[in-house]
Specification:
Shape: elongated
Structural class: alpha/beta
Helix content: 25-40%
Distance between the termini: 35 Å
Largest sheet: 6 strands, parallel
Number of strands: 8
Radius of gyration: 19 Å
Strand content: 15-25%
């Protein structure tokens, strides 16, 4: 019923605003949208570029990777899968560490990371005000964004990936998330796992 209503709304709209090029392409494939020539505007999530800027890195000694996971955990947000990625990376770089920046329940965070096999000595949870997030991102080498595949991810625009990129971090992400995979491949700003 909800899907039918959604399709009806798309087909009768005078204009559509979406969060990704992928969502735009899906809607352009609808016969009623094509027939009417419905205008579709893409407005991806915005990042405050005055706040989120690359950190100037001086000559720093080599260190093991420091990864950061920013934002929500649980349901579609797969911190457990991100933890499994860190465990796999630790086979090659044993000192790899993960910082989770989230206001999520610490018990949930610990449970998800415990289920991944990541040692509690290998990660830390920080709950920070938004204004402190850019400085925290600047302390790390890459951002992690792992999302469960679902019906709606083509229409999303993950702000956390944009914030990582704005701070100069590559993003390690799962496939099929909005325009993220295409951006990573086109701009060489991360990896899709």
């Amino acid at each position: 019923c909800a899907r039918a209503l959604e399709k009806c709304l798309y087909d009768h709209a005078e204009g559509l605003i979406v969060l990704s090029e992928r969502a735009r392409a899906v809607l352009l494939g609808r016969p009623a949208v094509q027939r009417k020539g419905t205008p579709i505007i893409v407005v991806p999530s915005a990042v405050d570029l005055d706040l989120f800027r690359p950190r100037t890195r001086g000559a720093e000694p080599r260190h093991e990777p420091s990864l950061v996971y920013l934002g929500s955990v649980g349901l579609r947000y797969r911190l457990d899968e991100a933890g499994r990625f860190v465990v796999a990376l630790q086979r090659f770089m044993p000192g790899t560490r993960l910082t989770v920046v989230s206001r999520a329940d610490p018990t949930l965070v610990a449970s998800m990371l415990d289920s991944s096999g990541l040692s509690r000595k290998s990660w830390v949870l920080k709950s920070l005000p938004h204004s402190d997030v850019p400085a925290e991102l600047g302390r790390h080498d890459a951002g992690l964004f792992f999302l469960t595949r679902g019906v709606s991810e083509h229409g999303s625009s993950p702000t956390k990936s944009g914030e990582d990129w704005a701070c100069g971090l590559p993003v390690v992400t799962t496939p099929n998330v909005s325009d993220t995979e295409a951006i990573v491949e086109r701009e060489d700003v991360g990896v899709v796992v």
